[in-house]
Amino acid sequence: MSNKEIIDQILKLRNISVLRSGVEVLDNISIEVNKGDFVGLVGPNGGGKTSLLLTILGELKPLKGDVIVYGHEPACRHNSGMVGWVPQMDDNRRDKVDQAIKMVGLIGMEDVDISRLSGGQIQRAVIGKALASESDFLLLDEPLVGVDRSSKNSLLKLLDDLCHHHGKTIIMVSHDLTAVTQSTHRIIYLEKSIQFDGPSKELPDLNDLAKIRGIVDPHSTHIHTHTTKLKTGDV
Prior knowledge:
Elements: H1 3-8, E1 9-20, E2 23-34, E3 38-42, H2 49-57, E4 64-69, E5 83-86, H3 100-103, H4 119-132, E6 137-141, H5 149-166, E7 169-173, H6 177-183, E8 186-191, E9 193-199, H7 206-212, H8 218-232
Parallel strand pairs: 3-7, 3-8, 5-6, 6-7
Antiparallel strand pairs: 1-2, 1-4, 8-9
């Protein structure tokens, strides 16, 4: 791999499988993410989204396969400070919102205890702290939870701007399919294995996603059975 390819290719996962507490949570995952990508990671609870982020961070080790971040193993010295991590919001966090406040539009609140901030303000502060670290690759786990509509739009605009104009690369986990579809460039639907990986605008609708996941509509089955009985006179 050339130096340019290493710079442009931020992340490469090759056929990784991951166990947690003896249970396989990720199976045969292969993903490539390039510089400037804004990727939405969606899927059901327990589908492996957070486990995938932790694997990229080096907190979880794959049972098999390779994880390459900036051309190296995750969490190595070469990658120090290059990956920013925004975990799911913990309402009990008591961090002070120092210089990051200024980066996310909360000037004048530098000395406010974080417990007094709204959900949207807290999320912006936490993301701002990741940005203040000057990380170029951001992993965001449910940053839209507890955020009102106005703050959500502001956050998504900020993230889009960071990718387009500041060369940041983002993987964002979210249950908000509408927000993810409207804001990200690409969506990965994860349920232990990858069920969909493509342009956000091409994400299948809910009915098609159900089919992909192998979920059968019990009402359609009932209708089909009832129709069959009518045709055979068995009523």
